[in-house]
Amino acid sequence: MPSVWVYVRENTACRQCCKMMPLCWSVLLLCLYTNAEDIAVYRWEGESVTLKCSSEGCPRSVEESVGMYLNRQDCKGEEEEEVLYHHRRNGKINPRKRFSGRVSTTGSPMNHTITISSLTIEDTGLYRCVYVNKNYDRVKCNGYTLVVREDIAVYRWEGESVTLKCSSEGCPSNAEEYNGLYLYRQQFQEDEEVLYYHRQSDKISLQKRFNSRTETTGSLMNLTITISSLTMEDAGFYRCVYVRENDHRVQCKGYILTVRGKPFVPPNQSPSLALVVIATCATSSLLTVIFILLIQRIKQWTWARTITTQRVSNNNVYEVMTRNAPCPPAAPEQSPPSPYNVA
Known about the structure:
Helices cover 21% and strands 38% of the residues. By secondary structure, it is of the alpha+beta class. The protein has a six-stranded mixed β-sheet with strand order 1-9-8-3-4-5, with no helix packed on it. A six-stranded mixed β-sheet has the order 10-18-17-12-13-14, with no helix packed on it.
């Protein structure tokens, strides 16, 4: 169940809603056919999952059962696929062709552990343990909702480059059977071809929009693709698709590429009003402080000048008054006393 959740412009709610609709419908259909008691299990492609079938999860006794099935149902609930059958009498386990070679089991039918390895997208679905008795009466027991995720989310800024890898490791078929490889970009349910690798001629054909900014290295089974000078239009869901004879196509690895635009700042943008107000207030405050300090200095200088002038004036007055003051009258001359005068 590959998801197609792709961001093209992060601030466009309508586009995000459209892109999420396939994923939402898949989840909705999955939930409609899933019981509340089913266990949800999430795995990445190539990993393994372990499921347990036991009589404890059955609505009634299954002690008289003659065997156990593990069935898989697709997300739409339309097709049911048998994974394996465990025969109780002879103890044999028969896995079906698609699961042969990647299923291992341990335990008894009443307490059975099943491990499925090398998971693929096609393994996604509803798994149910079903016990059957000799009258072919079936009892559905343990249930699991398995979701296999393969898409890798990649985030880049506009103008950067991204490297994608297409390999046969995550494909359900043998790589030797492939004749070519496509790299598709999907957006709004529309596929755009990025390149095609032809195995016989060993040539890679690039589409015009990606021709001058795409580099490739490696072989068909392990191809590395680098796309440079990314734009917002490059965002989307990239899928590696291998082609076999009769144009049979196998979808393999996928990437969700999100290209985010850098914030644009005009080169000659005028400063904002807030900066102008702050600068004006700071300048006014500084000028006010300088003016107050200058007034205080002038007052101190004026006061000191006044005191000095008053002191000089007082000294001058005292000196003038001293010079212009009248002389005191001379004392009367007295004759020396006569020796003949007798007191």
